Amino acid sequence: MSATKEFLKGLWKENPVLVLMLGMCPTLAVSSSAKNALGMGAATTFVLVGSNVAISLVRKVVPDKVRIPCYIVIIAVFVTIVEMLMAAYAPPELNVTLGIYIPLIVVNCIVLGRAEAFASKNSPWLSLFDGLGMGVGFTLALMALGAVREFLGAGTIFELQLFPKWEPFLLMQYAPGAFFVLGFFLAGMNMLRIRRARLEGKTYTPPSFDCSQCNLCELGKD
Amino acid sequence: MVAEYFGLIVGAILVNNFVLSRILGICPFLGVSRKLSTALGMGGAVIFVMTLTGFVTALVQHYVLLPLDLMYLRTIVFILLIAGLVQIVEVLLQRLSAPLYQALGIYLPLITTNCAVLGSAIICADSHYSVIKSTVFCSASAVGFALALLLFASVREKIELARVPRSLEGPAIALLTAGILAMAFTGFSGLGG
Amino acid sequence: MTETTVRLPDTSKLVVSSSPHFHDGSSVRKIMLLVIVALMPACLAGVLTFGPRALWVMLVCVVACMLVEAICTKLQGRTCTLGDGSAALTGLLLGMNLPVTTPAWMCVVGAIIAIGIGKMIYGGLGYNPFNPALVGRVALLMAFPTAMTTWVAPRSASSPLWAGVDSVTRATPLGTPWTGEQLFSTWELFIGRTGGSLGETCVPALVLGGLLLIALKIIRWQVPVCFIGTVAVITGIAHLAAPEQVAPPLLHIMSGGLMLGAFFMATDMVTTPLGRTGAVIFGVGCGVITAVIRLWGSYPEGVSFAILIMNAFTPLIDRYTAGKPFGVISHPGREVKL
Amino acid sequence: MTKKHLRFYGGVQPQESKIASGVAIVSAPLLATYVVPLQQHIGVPAKPVVAKGDKVLRGQLIGEAGGFISAAVHAPTSGIVKEIGSCLGPVGNQLPALILESDGEDQAAEPMSALDWPNASPDELRKRVAEAGIVGMGGAAFPSAVKLSPPQNKTIDTLILNGVECEPCLTADHRLMLERPEQVIIGARITARILGAKQVIIAIEANKPDAVALLQEKAAGTGVEVRSLQVRYPQGAEKQLIYSLTGRKVPSGGLPMDVGCVVQNVGTGAAICEAVCDGKPLYERVTTVTGTPLVAPGNWRFRVGTPYLEAIKLAGGVKTDPVKIISGGPMMGMAVYSLDIPILKNCSGILLLAADELRQYESTPCIRCGRCNDTCPMAMMPGILSVQIEKERFELAEQWHVLDCIECGCCAYGCPAGRPLVQLMGRAKAAVQAARKSRTAKKA
Amino acid sequence: MTAVFILTLIGLLLGLAIALTVHYFGVPTDPLAEQVAELIPGVNCGACGFAGCNDYVEALVAGKAKPGHCPSQSADALQKMCELLGVASEPHSEKVAVVCCSGTDQYAIRRAFYNGVNDCHSAMQVAGGAKGCVYGCLGLGSCSRVCPFGAIEMRADHIAVVHPELCVGCGKCVTACPRRIIKLVPKSAPIHVFCISPERGAVKRKVCNAACIGCRKCVKAAGEKQMFINGFLASVNYENPPDVNVVTVCPTQVLRTEAQPAAVAAAEASASPAAAATKTAS
Amino acid sequence: MKDIIRLCLVLAAVCFCGAAALVYVNAKTLIPRQQAQQTALAESLFMVLPPETNAVNALELPLDKGLSFFLASDEEGRPLAVAGQGSTNTGFGGEVVVLVGLERDGRIRGVMVSKHSETPGLGTKATDRKQVKSLWKVLAGKEKDLDFPPNDYLDIYSGRQAGSFVLGGGSAEQRIDGISGATTSCQAVLAAVNRVCDAYNKNRDAIWAAQ
Ligand SMILES: Cc1cc2nc3c(=O)[nH]c(=O)nc-3n(C[C@H](O)[C@H](O)[C@H](O)COP(=O)(O)O)c2cc1C
Ligand SMILES: Cc1cc2nc3c(=O)[nH]c(=O)nc-3n(C[C@H](O)[C@H](O)[C@H](O)COP(=O)(O)O)c2cc1C
Ligand SMILES: Cc1cc2nc3c(=O)[nH]c(=O)nc-3n(C[C@H](O)[C@H](O)[C@H](O)COP(=O)(O)O)c2cc1C
Ligand SMILES: Cc1cc2nc3c(=O)[nH]c(=O)nc-3n(C[C@H](O)[C@H](O)[C@H](O)CO)c2cc1C
Ligand code: SF4
Ligand code: SF4
Ligand code: SF4
Ligand code: SF4
Ligand code: FES
Could you tell which of A21, A75, A107 is best to mutate to test the pocket of ligand 9, judged by most ligand atoms within 8 Å of the CB? Predict the structure, then answer.
């Protein structure tokens, strides 16, 4: 029951990309095609689930002061594992495009954020579903971005052509395209929330994108 | 030789700008760019830390990991090195210079989880740069990061005063602006070889 | 004097407002219309050089920009701002920055990006940090590089005006590597009988319009002078150092979008620094970046990028060059705590 | 005497429209009722010293200064105090006021003794200025006695009499200088004596050559210098005037006395002369009533407390209905909506504007054209400031020196976007001052 | 094997470094502060008088402030906070803001057309805003723009209306209003006098048809303890509020339950206050 | 003190376990990883070599940097064809590496670009041999996998004699037409192919002799 809840919240209500706005670098960098997005999403999900469970298992033994270093080590281990697995079994061109973003999962705020916010406080079972939900939510959001960018930028989705005459809008394949598409996705989310708030008779103020959103350090707390 | 380093530096600052072209370090780029003052502090801190970590990780890579054939451990070793270094620098700063700590130190915790720092170390490792080259590359990249951050922060301060539609407020407008900035920076492509 | 003969004012329709109660009669619309008028010689030259399709491209851009602005203001629940003429001006400048062969749908895409992303997301006229027309143009350049860098040769001077566009592609002076000899005669360069965007080639027409704007005090002379001067100096030095690799400065000045950019786009008041010192810094910055991109970058032309990048520097320049108020010791911007 | 003058930064040249400049000053006839506000100056309101029902005489003290920065008020005519109440002031605020019902006799009270000014001590003279209730008649209505008492550590070497009258439409000072040149000059010399100023300059804009010539003639040999200045608004603003005449820059947040100057309106000078030489307190002044809708624009000597309606009647009423009625000139005056407002000591003009002269403010965004920077005589950045103020970022506005704005209106005059810049500046100045006050209160 | 060795060594060294740092430089964090912070909504509205929620929490934990200053806090959370801090819980009286003016365009006359910045403070500087009543609401939304909760709606007929269900009583609007016509009253109070003009009835009548004319009917109907007249203005005694039915005796309907007549309220409720606020912003 | 020791021990323990896990995974994936690397090259190689190819050997020749040759042999070990790898730095995005399959008579079998960073959708017109499948056809089951997907530009080289090619000029044998809009990429590919052809022509005997 509550496991399903933990799983589902990552898909929409607390979607790491669209709502929590975590892990922006991989989101922007590898969403140039649906396939890359899927690959990155899968790798991140693996790390998320693995580290969440592992951290949840050791959470009682780890003293508070070395909590973060321990979590980093655990996450880094899973990242290295996924790196090696991908080098061994994933299609080579995927490895080329995902490049250094795979090792960078280590510093992806989603992973450390979940470790801090959830796994360090909950049972391994729930943490598993939390990680899975977050991972799947991340993957879905990434794929949505990737699909839009790939379609606009190349006229294909999963490398399958939709319209033979599509003039590719190459801008979408570069960094600016990534910023634009994510920007409009977030605007869409805002619009939805403003509408919902209005229906409930409230006002919704979009979160200011600054450090008050995240609680990893003391900045922006004044 | 000089040309090579010049190309490396120009490339890292302008052409393959960490934020605008390689898309690394986006979290602090968006997070601390609301005020010019914080952007400056963060920029300074990143330049300092990235130069330091670039040097140290390159040392470890060349004199520990490569000889022992342990390159597959680079991610975990680098991140631990960065975390440890940042911690030590923070403590030292706090001890040695209060004003410097106020100006730069408070940004240090933000740096551990910054893609740009680990990213630059890994790029150096994967491109087999020498120790000197790694250090130069990392500090140039950090300068590029700081430049982008500074520009972006000043533009954002201007946008703060604009009449942005409600649904675009906050992160959305920041990303769209970053997009235009990134577009402008593509003009530099091809510079520095 | 009896009371009845004196008519007393009716106070029921009075207006109260803050001082001053006089105004010099200037308006945004007048300024924008003047800029459009100043662009007319260059537009005409574009049509004469590239044929009637040039007119079509500009028309599509203008109409599309105005439509996009109308739709955006509608969506944002604001009053329609077409009347100020800035959307039409953006459209015209966008059109003048495109090759004459640009398909109409591409013009529309450019207009959507220019007005939609370049301007309206910030709340419309006055708030955009980047030059909208250039945002549109650079986005098109990156999205459809082939279409955007395919230049046709100018119509032959003898063929009738209504004859279609020449299908012969012709390189631009900047697009072909410098081999030590000039591809185009200086006269051809001067009057714009070269390949290029449809509104950027005719130097005298652009200078005429620019001088008009300077005379009317709509733009500051510092920007075009510093911009063009800097390009001339840097390319001049480079040319002296390596005459076989770098074209002479005269060619650099007269080709590409430099004239159009320096007189009409680097002077867009919304996106450039306010003061005189700021204008000088802005112009020099644009010149340096343009020259660097032209000489060493992979793009043949750098004016658009240079202006956009300097647009990003504008808030900083404003802050550090803000004039000292009367009786104040330090600059206001510098006092702002950093 | 034709010293080359400096030119102040910025400024504009609006149409002059001084249609009443040829009309001689006429004394306004006596009215049945006067509404005399107790606050006709900057500072604390005067305290009434008469009660309801009391009989008063012209020139009798009816309100005494209510504090250090305050000024006395005198009855404009003889009659009965009908009520001590309130009335509407030009800025739309309620002012404490005495309603004086005239008895038609206009009986004068015993005047104060005339002083032998060349031999009287400065303190004596200063006391007289205070007793006569004299306030600055150039606009701000700052109590003159206070202004003439600079702190010990400031030496004043230059007195400037401001006959610039750079506001379009207004002609009161011009007429005064033409008709009472001696009073102006003597007033200047008295003031110089009070301040111990060695240099005395009467500054007049070059568009009043008759006044320049007349005053030069009359001033010959008195040590008073008369200078003609470039016609450029706001030449008469004190900081700009001091710069044009002496090249000194009043520091930001400072006063003219910080650079050894005092600036005084010519009307104030004449009033001081009357108070000292004739013992006459300040209860009447010259005011221009002008504007195209009026039948007969002109200059009148009004008693303080005359409602605007009476002034308009004197000017023959209107030909067409005005859309704006302004207390003061077109660049700095305040629009009013009621004709019951009384003429105060600082009211230099009543201006009516017709529908075709109306300017409408629009809140269209600043297009950063930079005209306001170029014309702002304080060299500020009104465009940038206005955007900050619209977003209520007053702390930013403070950093960008909004408090230096003299509200001259040059910026809004030429703003193509038609922005209400002066109003925004005023808003921000009020907010910044309030914030500063609460900051100092918190510290204390 | 070297891998395991190296990594374990790094772990050991890092652990040592951290342990030493913590040992020598560590700043103890207060678990109490964290718990307290969780009971505060965290909107940083500043109504408590501190520079943001964190500041307040610090003061609370340090014993320098008392609980109950946060208006947005629920009674429940306050109770818990008091227990945590070991302070006797204080009665939590929830307040709301009320705009004490009925002068919509329909009722209050305007003396002139105001052309200028859409902001009440600015309008005050130009002929006092040109509204006939110099005490009444200018309807230009200075209050609505400062409300952190979007509780104030600016109506098209130039009056501000507080939505009590959204208002948390932070009082920001009270200080923002240049005319000082917004009052904080107990949430439970049923009726209010929607007028603050101290002028005589006749004077008020000239400028506004919905003013309190000081006719004393309500005082007679409700009793001296529940309502009282101050000068020419009736007031509700909020300590001891009168019965709702008193409203029927008021001849000008200035004594009401709602800020606006019920029919208008329903129609306007659909338009969000925020949307109205941005429209008036210049 | 106890605290300090505890901190160190926990962290060390976590590192220990992590390292152990990594060592294990590393050992397990070492061979698959190497294979994956080899197959990436092998796949490209096999595409430009005849289908009968059984084994491919890298040749050790004294060549410039960025050039190498592979010899393909059939089941009986007879040399079948040669593949040359050449690189250049003149692409729009920098390095371009091509593989050229060569018949015994010096004719080009096919050209592949094995590494590049050209602009997707633009430069890739001159470099990628990627089969573009239509979504609709795939759904209808009508799309077949091709062994050697076509590329308009790269296919121009097939069947020609290895020589020095010229973009848009030269003699009929030398002339290669580029793709408009991607001239830089075409030029880069051409330069790399020319390098391989040059080296092949110079070392032809040595190459075929190597066994
Ligand atoms: C708040 C305030 C305080 C002033 N204090 C002094 C003063 O102490 N001494 C002085 O000589 N003038 C003082 N002044 C007068 C100014 O110097 C100036 O003459 C007066 O404000 C009229 O200026 P304006 O007509 O240009 O607005 C003061 C004015 C104001 C508004
Ligand atoms: C923009 C501006 C214009 C002014 N123009 C005049 C003017 O034309 N004549 C004048 O007497 N005072 C003018 N003043 C007021 C002077 O600055 C100064 O306050 C005044 O001369 C002081 O004299 P008073 O105290 O006798 O009024 C102006 C002030 C400002 C801010
Ligand atoms: C964003 C962008 C990407 C480009 N990528 C390539 C590329 O990958 N390969 C290439 O040859 N040219 C590339 N170009 C260059 C232009 O297409 C080329 O300079 C222009 O089309 C000249 O036309 P031509 O190739 O017909 O000479 C690119 C240009 C832009 C703006
Ligand atoms: C001198 C001048 C130059 C202008 N240049 C441009 C331009 O280059 N691009 C553009 O989109 N709008 C231009 N505009 C129009 C207008 O300022 C522009 O649409 C605003 O940037 C939109 O907010 C110009 C206006 C003027 C007065
Ligand atoms: S009103 Fe203020 S800001 Fe405007 S021009 Fe005058 S001094 Fe400058
Ligand atoms: S004059 Fe008006 S539009 Fe121009 S900069 Fe100033 S405020 Fe902006
Ligand atoms: S209406 Fe006033 S008291 Fe109520 S929440 Fe808003 S600002 Fe605070
Ligand atoms: S209640 Fe609000 S709208 Fe009304 S005057 Fe006060 S601040 Fe302005
Ligand atoms: S994901 Fe890159 S810095 Fe956060």
Answer: A107
